[in-house]
Every structure is written in structure tokens, then in C-alpha cells.
Amino acid sequence: MLFSISPRNPVPLYQQIVEQIRAKILAGELPPGSQLPSIRELAKELTTSMITTKRAYLELEKEGLLITRPGLGTFVAGVRPEMVASLKQARVKEHLQAAIQEARRVGMQDQELRALLEELLEWGGEPPG
């Protein structure tokens, strides 16, 4: 399983794990029923503590994205499509709100921001290069 966490990132390590697993589930890279590494295996792989990994798994369980079966392991839960859509919208909305706040902070007008968003949408999110 490919995760990359960094102690230099200001986001707590457990949150980095949560965000990466959540993103893989929402993108369909981890379909329902997929088994995740054990807490111990993932902690070893990421060179972090088992407490950090356990905290990440618990948070994802509370969200309904993971299910732990004692003695069997941790699996991606059978998430309903409407829940996936709702989670995707919430994540994107969070990022868009941050972008709007930054635009306001630097004095950008709404029309400029709309034009910038349209431009990025035309490019598929990446500037031509």
C-alpha cells in the first residue's frame, strides 16, 4: 500500500494517514471489502507508532469508511454511493472555502476568482505547460 507521510508536514501524522486512505476509498482505489494492513504492519511501513496508526483507523471507522473484524483485520466498509458523493463534496467544499478565503485575503474580486476557476477547469486543473 502506497502512503507517504512526512513529519515535516504541519498536518499531524495520523491525519495524513486518514486523508490518504479516505482519498483512496473515495477514488475507488480501495473498493469495499479491501483489506488494509494491520495497525502494526502499517506503523512499521510508515515508521510511525502503532498509536498513530490506530488513531487513524479509529477515525475512519467513526466515519463509516472502515470496519474492523476482530481476529480478521481491518477492511473498507461497504459505503453507499450517496455517502461517497457526500464525502467527496464535503472535501472539495472545504478546499474551495479555503481558496475563497485566500482570494479575499489578497483582495481578489469574485469575478476574478470565477474567471480563474473557469480557466483552471478548462485546463483540467493543471496549467498548460
UniProtKB/TrEMBL annotation:
SUPFAM superfamilies referenced in this protein's UniProt entry, alphabetically: Winged helix' DNA-binding domain (SSF46785)
Keywords tagged on the record: DNA-binding, Transcription, Transcription regulation
Location of the HTH gntR-type domain: 11-79
Keyword Transcription part of the UniProt annotation: yes
GO molecular function: DNA binding; DNA-binding transcription factor activity
PANTHER family found in the cross-reference section: GNTR-FAMILY TRANSCRIPTIONAL REGULATOR, HTH-TYPE TRANSCRIPTIONAL REPRESSOR YTRA
Name of the protein described by the UniProt record: HTH-type transcriptional repressor YtrA
Lineage: Bacteria, Bacillati, Bacillota, Clostridia, Neomoorellales
Gene encoding the protein: ytrA_1
